[in-house]
Amino acid sequence: MLHGSKRIISIQVRYYKPRRSLFLSSHVCSATFCSHRLKPIESDQPAEKNIVNLFEHILRQCSTIHQAKETHTQIIITRSDQYAFLAARLITVYAQFGFLAYAKMVFQGIPIEHKSNLLLWNSMLRATQSYGYFAESLRLYRKMRNVGIMPDGFTFPLLVRACASIGNLHMCKLVHGHVLVSGFQFHVHVANELIGMFGKLGFMDHARKVFDGMQFRSCISWNSLISGFSKNYNLEDTINMFKCMELEGMEPNLVAWTSLLSAHARCGKFEDVLRLFREMRLKRNGATAEAVAVVLSVCADFYMSYEGIAIHGYVITGGFQDYMFVNNSLICLYGKHGNMEDSSSLFRQMKAKNLITWNSLISSLAEAGLCDEAFEVFSQLEKSGDSMLQPNVITWTTVISGFSSKGRGNECLDMFRRMLYANVDPNSVTFASVLSACGELAILDRGREIHGHSIRSRLDDNILVGNGLINMYMKCGKLKEAQIIFNKLGDRDLVSWNSMIAGYGMHGFGEDCLLTFRQMVEVGQRPDEVTFVAVLSACSHAGLVTEGQQLFDQMVNMFSIQPLMEHYACMVDLLGRAGLLQEACDIVKNMPMEPNVCVWGALLNSCQMYKNTDLAEVAASKIFSLETRAVGSYILLSNLYAACGSWQNSAKVRMLAKTKGLKKNPGQSWIEVQNKVHTFLAGNALQPGLEEVYHVLGDLGLKMETGRYITDGNAELHEGLYNEDKLMVSANY
DNA sequence: ATAGGGTTAG
Fold first, then answer.
1. Fewer beta carbons within 10 angstroms: which end of chain A, N or C?
2. What is the reported pTM?
């Protein structure tokens, strides 16, 4: 508590190092304190100017909130709080110390008739915005205009920034209108913010117009324009403006270099990023932490482990190790390269962590396939209780897609439900992950529900979501619905076409598959390796031999795609299934790489179909020598022997597989009833609820027999393919 | 009394 002027001054001296100016002013201070006069906002009296300057000086020196509060008390006692200049400084200082509520109190404490000073409003606007309350700052601006105060060159940059941050196009246009009416469009700071705003909105032609109209440009103007082009993935104009800047005698600084780097990174030019980073360090004798983060993320994304570790070295020598976002990139770098030890130890060592830090660790774990660990860290984050560290869309989506890509669809969908319950809005990436899980699980009802949800979120025309929907409907056997989604999709990419082609192929619609492929080529979408795997395998399943051969030829000669192992396997399968075993053998002999299990397996399968025991033995011995756990091959060979009546050989192969401890992953069929998927295993009568099914099945069988339907004699053998024990019985027969 | 650059999910 303060009781008198002497005490006030002694506090000042205790808190701040005594300086000449401070001692001089203390006389003024006590003099003013004694006079107890209320001061108008603007005063030209020198004595009053002095006390205001003194307090302003003290406020600038405050390093704790307590010092600021003490000084504020003195300001009130001396009635100096009526000075707009001091009130503005108090607002700024309180905001800086994290006490926005105090800043507001200062602002509100000033009577409306004294609120004519723009500095006051600008300070309050800035204080509000520094907390991210952009909408509130715009409301404040309205209030300001309502009391008849006109904005100036300090107000407009704040306003432009506020509506750009909110991202509301209407607001942006409104504020831009105010700027135009006030004639501030080419004011350096206002124009710089406008360029930034248009860059963020993706209106680079507007940004360019503002830039071109400026009479004086600062390097910030150039950098804002360059970063606008970079943010909009316009590499060409980013480079052009960078060069223009040099030509006009403005040497691009480190910030301009950083934008140039990030433009290359965004466009996937990872080699150029590394080259430019070296050039930047040479020419400008250093780098920025932001540039380091960009380069690290490029090293992570393109699996350049060696370069990444070298840049980690530079982080330490260059003194960048205390930047949170640099460390976040490092966590991702090590995580993406499968080095979870270094990734998580970096996480542990970080003193200050933000949500991105947590997301980086979670995504590293998910990337490594450790979705349980990722979920564990997610739970820790959820329980942390920090309101700034609550899982966001990215956190949720990371865990959701982690489960999805591991084939744990039910956990994926559970997390999605929880996410909605937590009131976090899914985005296109979330929908894509969840739809993929629905496709894998083939749960049409849930897929449809999510389709509806994506429509309500107005994301159904997004390419990621569209592709997810096509894939989901295809996997659920709803080919027509997939086609409808595909037809409605505004811009289709390679994935959209591949999903359609693969979907038709998957369900044995060879003609539709080829038709879609031809349409794809017609509209100028270049097919890739994946397209040809889908098309070729469709041909082989539909028995379209000549078409398949032609397509293989087209792939190499028309589209200059080097055939991969998969394509050779498809060709062997295609020819072999058609009974052209010799041609299939030729492919195996002439292919440029050592055939793998899939290629030999395709050949073996064909041998089994056409009962070619000699060739089958060659293929089988190759497969067994490759030391894979290709159980299917043992079963195929065994079946072939059995089909040729060579029971002993058949049993021998079976036993061989058994002694090696190999067990076939049994084939399953499924049906979706009331949002639940029921799976069936051949010969598994132990499954609960199956008695009833078998009962119905028995009835049907009886009806079929009495109705003189002929049952397939091979059915039992076929079933045996999926059930080892059962086949062992038939083999020993 | 201002400003430009950055890191996380597919």
1. N
2. 0.81
